[in-house]
Design a protein that fits this description.
heterodimer; A: 207 residues; alpha/beta; Rossmann fold; five-stranded antiparallel sheet; globular; B: 176 residues; mainly alpha; MetI-like fold; 9 helices; 73% helix; 0% strand; flat
Chain lengths: 207, 176
């Protein structure tokens, strides 16, 4: 169980606003996070990953405390090891598809399996600049999965995929999530995009 | 400061700082038997101090242009800041690093004020090409001055052209 109760001040168009979220995510669940643009969805994911620290809050994962602002404790992103799919993919321009995955894990079999799920086997030696938008996005997903994360945070992960490719990759990912018991949080703008994939959803709004 | 200080002023202060008669220079001399004033080592040290900003500036600027998400992605994969710098950041600013190295070297090659102050003009020890040009002109030996100048000009010209060629073909942003 992941328990999040955080408060973060954000500078918005209307002045300073507060992102305030209290939610629980059962282990192995898939949750859709939605809300208007600029409502703090990406910030919320980054707070969970340890990339942004909120002014107030507590995050616990099972029995482990990841963040407790009262005791000024924040576990580093390296130790949280959350899989993170960035909205801009954040691929490393100097690395090929294969090298991206090798940077994350030494498990050759796992890498081959991921490449097959992402249908990127034939592009293993390609660098990001020679991949299409959809291929880049798939690589970003595979890289996040390479560390076998217990918690996967995905920021608009399917926005560049056509419906056919999306329906081709999602069953493979779901299988991996079930195997690993991964808890998945997916940010999405499109209400229809995740239909049938997520059973839970939370809306984020600034106050 | 080295960027805006007149080279002779920087050289003067380095001369005072590393003077074996007092302060840091005396301590270095007494403890390690090292003398930076009027020595080749001193020239190198002074050149590093003087040229450092020309190296740091382009590299810092290149690092700032990389998206923050690259580092963040690396951290979420469990990599330390050092691993991230070596494996992700540095390879993606390689063209800028190479450009900075070439330009800094070219700049160092033509130094005059700093090296004259801290190195003096000892033939075979601290006489550098730019000082040799000045010396030759002072002695009315224009042929020698011309030879030295031509050599310096050629080396610098090749370097600048190399930077232009390299930038044209290689140094585009990795994120383009």
């Amino acid at each position: 169980m992941i328990s999040v109760d955080i408060e973060k001040k954000l500078r918005a168009y209307k002045g300073q606003q507060v992102l305030k979220i209290a939610a629980q995510f059962p282990s192995g669940s898939i949750t859709k996070i939605y809300g208007p643009s600029g409502s703090g969805k990406t910030t919320f994911l980054k707070i969970i990953a340890g990339l942004i620290t909120p002014e107030k809050g507590k995050i616990t994962v099972d029995d482990a405390v990841w963040l407790d602002t009262d005791s000024k404790f924040s576990l580093s992103p390296q130790k949280r090891r959350t899989g993170f799919v960035f909205q801009n993919y954040a691929l490393f321009p100097n690395m090929t598809v294969q090298q991206h995955l090798e940077y994350a894990t030494d498990d050759r079999q796992w890498i081959n399996r991921l490449l097959a799920i992402g249908q990127l086997e034939t592009f293993a030696e390609h660098k990001p600049e020679y991949l299409s938008g959809g291929q880049q996005q798939r690589l970003a997903i595979l890289r996040a999965m390479a560390i076998k994360p217990k918690l996967l945070l995905m920021d608009e992960p399917f926005s560049a995929l056509d419906p056919k490719m999306k329906s081709g990759i999602i069953p493979g990912l779901k299988l991996l999530w079930e195997e690993l018991g991964t808890t998945v949080l997916i940010v999405s703008h499109n209400p229809q995009e995740l239909e049938g994939l997520t059973a839970r959803e939370i809306e984020i709004n600034l106050s | 400061m080295p960027l805006v200080l007149p080279p002779s002023v920087l050289g003067f202060y380095l001369l005072l700082a590393f003077s074996p008669q007092h302060g840091v220079g005396k301590w270095l001399h007494d403890t390690f038997n090292v003398q930076f004033v009027f020595s080749f080592q001193g020239l190198i040290l002074a050149s590093v101090i003087y040229s450092m900003p020309f190296m740091i500036g382009p590299i810092k600027s290149a690092l700032q242009q990389l998206p923050l998400s690259l580092s963040q992605a690396s951290y979420t994969l469990g990599k330390t800041e050092r691993q991230t710098f070596i494996n992700v950041l540095l390879p993606n600013i390689r063209p800028s690093v190479l450009t900075a190295v070439i330009l800094t070297f070219a700049h160092t090659l033509g130094e005059f004020g700093v090296v004259l102050m801290i190195g003096g003009n000892i033939p075979g020890v601290t006489r550098v090409a730019s000082i040799a040009v000045y010396d030759s002109v002072e002695n009315m030996d224009y042929a020698a001055a011309n030879t030295y100048s031509l050599i310096l000009f050629s080396i610098t010209f090749v370097m600048v052209i190399s930077v232009f060629v390299f930038n044209k073909y290689k140094a585009k942003s990795p994120l383009e």
